[in-house]
Known about the structure:
This protein is of the alpha+beta class. It has one domain (about 20-80). About 40% of the residues lie in helices and about 10% in strands. The protein has a two-stranded antiparallel sheet. Strands 3-4 form a two-stranded antiparallel sheet. β1 (about 1-5) and β2 form a beta hairpin. The radius of gyration is 17 Å and the shape is extended. It starts with a strand and ends with a helix.
Amino acid sequence: MYLFFKLEYKVEDLFESRPPLLFADFLKRGVELNDRIYNEVEDYNLLLKVITDYMNEETKLNLVLFKDAVEHLSRMARVIR
């Protein structure tokens, strides 16, 4: 057990696999840009499906989306918007 910044943690906890904390406003298609609301992504598989569907239908790209790429994509969408 370690104590830093008044937080106790175990080293094993640092390597535990946790779902990423992501927010997106593009999970529902067909919503006007001004009506979109950023919500926390609770289902990572749904986010991956939405991105893959959009990529296949709109852009005709066929990319492999690794976890890091999906996380960066959701952040970039926020920054660009």
